[in-house]
């Protein structure tokens, strides 16, 4: 069953892998659909630029007059055609074609941005759900302990302070758990919007790839990432295209200073020079005062400005790759320094601690201390793993290439 249909009909949970989520995103996201229309709009402007100006036609017929012969027999007609000069039409076509490229680059850059949000939200929900399971385990265990303590307190076998200490720890965990759930709901709602999933459907991310202990960054040389960013960053490509657009616009404004002219053919049945008078003419304005100086100056400034902005964008791309590479390297080294068996061993230890506490082999303070340490370390480990995955996604984003987390 397609994931889209399964998500819409489910009243409980939609299980999704990252590949399935990306497929739904590309198919259903409304922002992408809206942005794609800009390409069609820009393509229509190319059609407009290619069209030739329509000829002008005029016809007049006599109605009344005092002179002979009969003025109602007087008829005249004229047809004229505007002829553009200095390659204005070709320059306008090229300008519109560059506009299409800009619309495409904006579209693909939106995909890059939203895809980063999608994948970041996906992994955020996944790892926060892992932390949620830790709280579920602890709260469930403390609830059992609290029930047993209430029974023992009613029988007078334990002091009230022990009962209150368990209650205090349980309430503290429940408050933290509630804050965690609110955070998950917030991120999940953003994920649902990106996927266009029913707001009442819960999304359960499935992550099958385990990168624990792996040297991920060494698989792609740094220079390859930087070169890829220069080629595949659509915001940078848009800046380059903007330079081309402004240069072409400058050429068009210079050409506009050259006057166009109209060729005409005229006919006058009872003209002043005799009957059936036919004449031809040409009309153009004289560029004596207005030579499009202001628009040319503006276009030149825009062209120079776009070149400076392009250089700034190139510097920003290099800075983005360098900074995010360092961050990802730090998270990778820190995550790989952890013993992969730590989480399993610690979980087993806490289970044994709970058993020994229920058998009264250890005291309450040691029991609560172990539980608090387990919760803190498990949540911190999930946070570290999320930071590592997010740093790799950030590298994908700044290089414009899906190098990692595939």
Description:
The chain has 406 residues and is an alpha+beta fold. It has one domain (3-63, 73-399): Outer membrane efflux proteins (OEP), CATH 1.20.1600. The chain is 67% helix and 12% strand. The protein has 10 helices and 6 strands. The chain has helices at 3-9, 18-28, 30-50, 88-154, 160-195, 222-232, 234-256, 293-336, 342-358, 364-399, and strands at residues 13-17, 56-61, 75-83, 202-206, 261-271, 274-284. The strands form 2 sheets. The chain has a 4-stranded antiparallel sheet, with no helix packed on it. The protein has a two-stranded parallel ribbon with strand order 1-4. Strand 5 and strand 6 (274-284) form a beta hairpin. Helix 7 runs antiparallel to helix 8 (293-336) and helix 9 (342-358) packs antiparallel against helix 10 (364-399). The longest helix is centred in the N-terminal third of the chain and has 67 residues, at 88-154. The radius of gyration is 37 Å and the shape is elongated. The two termini are 23 Å apart. Mean pLDDT is 89; it is low at 1-10.
